[in-house]
Amino acid sequence: MPQGKHLLGMPKGKHLFGTAKVGEKGQIVIPKEARTLFNIKQGDTLLILGDDENGIFITKPDVMNKVALEIFEKIEEKEK
């Protein structure tokens, strides 16, 4: 399994995959190494989130489902 480019002392589990240019239709190409590591295939749906200070976050929707479930569980625990 690819390990990403550990440049600039990137810690284990953190990856720097390089850069991507935005095409005329606003499309970018996700580097092959990143697609392989995160099992992203043609036709997959990705969730795009944005934050004015931190930028853009791209992930598979199921990753955010897990986060949402954790949030709901913590809310339920506080209500008990």
Secondary structure blueprint with pairings:
Blueprint: H1 32-37, E1 47-51, E2 55-59, H2 61-79
Antiparallel strand pairs: 1-2
Describe this structure in words.
A two-stranded antiparallel ribbon has the order 1-2. A hairpin with a 3-residue loop joins β1 (47-51) and β2 (55-59). It is an alpha+beta fold and 80 residues long. The longest helix is centred in the last third of the chain and has 19 residues, at 61-79. The chain has 2 helices and 2 strands, in the order αββα. 0% of the residues are buried.
Number of helices: 2
In percent terms, what proportion of residues is strand? 5-15%
Q: N-to-C SSE series?
A: HEEH
Q: What structural class do you assign from the helix and strand content? A: alpha+beta
Keywords:
80 residues; two-stranded antiparallel sheet; 2 helices; 31% helix; elongated
Short précis:
This protein is of the alpha+beta class and 80 residues long.
